[in-house]
Write a structure and sequence with these properties.
Elements: H1 4-16, H2 24-28, H3 31-34, H4 40-48, H5 53-63, H6 76-85, E1 88-93, H7 109-113, E2 117-122, E3 125-130, E4 133-135, E5 147-153, H8 165-174
Helix pairs in contact: 1-8, 4-5
């Protein structure tokens, strides 16, 4: 449950901390990850948009309506909302562009995608693919990928329409 005290503590942490870019191995060792389940969208977004996992987790709780231990639908509309908030844009890539013998999977996607950052979707799961490495527990597995979004830094100077945690704390203090 998100409380005023939790928001204040997290704002203090984010205010004094540099943005730490985390990979899946580092995220899986964090206390926040250990205490949560069904958070593949949070993990993939954290890695793809270079945002610390706890900060991205709070964003999904506050702005996307995600609840602890519950997954969330992550279609192109929701993914674009998160991307835009952090200054990125997503480009939908057609699956038919890949001449793959069989299906594209986390096991063989490195041969076909190359460098760059992607969010890949399987049935009921999403994962991040960054600089030729699958950043997820599905690495080396044969889940069939059915969605590919290329993550690119936005050319526009995007100002978030969402309120940050520190803005929420200021509102709490006022009223």
């Amino acid at each position: 449950m998100i409380t005023r005290r939790n928001l204040r503590l997290k704002a203090e942490i984010y205010g004094n901390q540099k943005r730490i870019i985390m990979d899946y191995q580092e995220i899986s060792k964090t206390e926040e990850y250990q205490e949560d389940t069904n958070c593949c969208t949070v993990v993939a977004s954290s890695i793809a948009f270079n945002v610390p996992f706890p900060e991205m987790q709070d964003y999904f709780f506050i702005h996307m309506g995600r609840k602890m231990h519950r997954g969330i639908r992550f279609g192109l509309k929701q993914a674009n909302k998160v991307a835009k908030n952090y200054g990125y844009q997503l480009k939908n890539i057609c699956m038919s562009d890949f001449k793959v013998q069989g299906k594209l999977t986390p096991n063989n996607c490195a041969m076909h995608l190359g460098k760059g950052t992607y969010i890949l979707g399987c049935r009921g799961h999403v994962l991040a693919f960054k600089d030729g490495v699958v950043q997820d527990w599905t690495k080396g597995r044969r889940h069939h990928i059915n969605r590919i979004w290329k993550v690119e830094k936005s050319t526009k100077n995007v100002k978030s329409s969402q309120k940050s945690i520190s803005d929420l704390i200021k509102e709490f203090k006022k009223g």
